[in-house]
Automatic annotation (TrEMBL):
Species, as recorded: Nocardioides panzhihuensis
GO molecular function terms noted in the UniProt entry: peroxiredoxin activity
SUPFAM superfamilies named among the record's database cross-references: AhpD-like
UniProt xrefs under Pfam families: CMD
The protein's name: AhpD family alkylhydroperoxidase
Domain Carboxymuconolactone decarboxylase-like as annotated: residue spans: 13-94
Length: 154
């Protein structure tokens, strides 16, 4: 599958800079890097973004995510390989990514669970992480970003 156009973040360098700033903010939020990677992969799975999945696959070993978590990610709720904090972060990722699928996508119950495991800064980072990866996915799927050679890995 070929790209429809260059990635907008490549065409408009200010956009790439802005995305980089969002990612830097997420990194400064105090979340474990493994959590941000798992969330990014989960969001990309839900959105069917092959380029993002490939981009995150190359980081798994660097971040220290074991294969059991990668294989079990689609069934994280039932998997014994995720702790409660990771499960709730992934549940929030599911809810935010699928906002239109529910009248109350991010329920008060889910929010209480999130804030039980993460402080305010970490929660802010988690919300930004989910939103940023949804942004990536929507752009990359729209332009059919090359999954084998995404522009940010060239």
């Amino acid at each position: 599958m070929s790209n429809r156009m260059k990635n907008p973040a490549e065409v408009i360098p200010q956009a790439f800079k802005g995305i980089g700033n969002l990612l830097a903010a997420v990194a400064d939020g105090g979340l474990p890097e493994t959590t941000t990677e798992l969330v990014a992969i989960r969001v990309s799975q839900l959105n069917g973004c092959a380029a993002c999945l490939q981009g995150h696959a190359v980081r798994l070993a660097d971040v220290g995510i074991p294969i059991e978590k990668v294989v079990g990610l689609a069934a994280y709720r039932e998997s014994p390989f995720f702790d409660d904090a990771e499960k709730v972060a992934l549940a929030l990722a599911d809810a935010v990514t699928r906002l239109a699928d529910s009248e109350d996508a991010v329920s008060d119950e889910l929010w209480r669970e999130v804030t039980k495991h993460y402080d305010e800064k970490q929660t802010a980072a988690l919300v930004l992480c989910i939103a940023t990866h949804n942004l990536f996915n929507r752009v990359n799927v729209t332009v059919r970003e090359d999954a084998e050679h995404p522009f940010w890995l060239r």
